[in-house]
Amino acid sequence: APVSLTKAVCLGRQAPTGVSRGRPNMKKILIVHVSRTGNTKLVAEHLAEGIRMTGNEVVVKKIGDIEKADELAGFDGYLLGSPTYHLDMMNPMKTFLFLMEKADLAGKLAGAFGSYTHSGDAPKIILDTMEHVFKMKPSSLGTINLLEAVVDTDEGRKIGHDYAKAFVDELG
């Protein structure tokens, strides 16, 4: 199958009603990614579009744009992305995770995503780190991991949107 999800994304979910900019129940999600060929960046953009469709706020950053742990404060949920490269996450993500460990994000909702050609190990390793090292709450959706050939298709876009909408639903 061209699409691999740790757990199935609930397709067809509707965006929450009654959510609009500036309202007290609006959630703020941070998406941080590293991308080697642009595919993981595109997955991040699909996720961001899905979050915006729910009326919630999203901030998308490349890993290199975050220099201090305090820049990670103030978000309700966190989505981290890295392609799988040589059966692992890319080195900038490993370095970023050491920075993130200093941010005290225990209890915050966590998700991970990536793209791959032949193995897709990075998102699971990232989410496991968020859960077991940072004590974050892993999304019940698991990870989203798209085969590179699917990322820039309608199917890839829909999967990103649906995952993001369901992630926001988990925030309550």
Account of the protein in words:
The chain has five helices and eight strands, in the order ββαββββαβαβαα. It is globular. Mean pLDDT is 88; it is low at 1-21. Helix 1 (39-53) crosses helix 5 (154-171). It has 172 residues and is an alpha/beta fold. The strands form two sheets. A six-stranded mixed β-sheet has the order 1-8-7-4-2-3, sandwiched between helices. A two-stranded antiparallel sheet has the order 5-6. The longest helix is centred in the C-terminal third of the chain and has 18 residues, at 154-171.
Elements, N to C (H/E): EEHEEEEHEHEHH
Q: Can you summarize the main beta sheet?
A: 6 strands, mixed
Question: Going across the major beta sheet, what is the strand order?
Answer: 1-8-7-4-2-3
**Rg from Cα:** 15 Å
- How many angstroms does the end-to-end distance come to? 31 Å
Q: Mean of the pLDDT scores?
A: 88
Question: Count of DSSP helices?
Answer: 5
Secondary-structure content class: alpha/beta
Strand content: 25-35%
By DSSP, the count of extended strands is 8
Shape: globular
Low confidence ranges: 1-21
User: What is the share of helical residues?
Assistant: 25-40%
Ordered list of secondary-structure elements with their pairings:
Layout: E1 3-5, E2 28-33, H1 39-53, E3 57-62, E4 77-81, E5 84-85, E6 88-89, H2 91-100, E7 109-116, H3 122-132, E8 137-147, H4 148-151, H5 154-171
Parallel strand pairs: 2-3, 2-4, 4-7, 7-8
Antiparallel strand pairs: 1-8, 5-6
Helix pairs in contact: 1-5
